[in-house]
């Protein structure tokens, strides 16, 4: 946290310099067009992610497969990349593109074992396996329909 302000100023300086370097290389109109295009792409990415990103993270956790933390954080990476696309400059654009790369990490179950569960290395995001099928609920039911006589008695003796 101590060097956060200095890092922000360095990033700001690099953003301005990247705009100047690209404008010198490609021209001012092309640079402005690329910045507008980058903003529009970032805006479309943010509109696309919405609640679906949260649902995607939840589905990844509930799938029961061994997923990496980096894969689980995909919706957050996607939203941060979209925000970086919307900021003017090309350094943030490169960082945003880097966030969109499909890196894989170690599965959660093989990470440090004292982090999750009872220390036996089980994956906390998997469903426990049982012998019987949990999808079947056994039972009996009977459908009873009131007769016309019962309906009439109910209407006559209905409390006010």
UniProtKB/TrEMBL annotation:
Annotated Basic and acidic residues bias: 146-160
Keywords: Membrane, Transmembrane, Transmembrane helix
GO cellular component entries: membrane
Domain of life: Bacteria
Disordered: annotated segments: 115-160
Bilayer-crossing regions: 32-57, 78-103
Pfam families xref list: FxsA
InterPro entries: FxsA
NCBIfam families: PRK11463.1-2 (NF008528)
Protein name as annotated: Membrane protein FxsA
Annotated source species: Neisseria zalophi
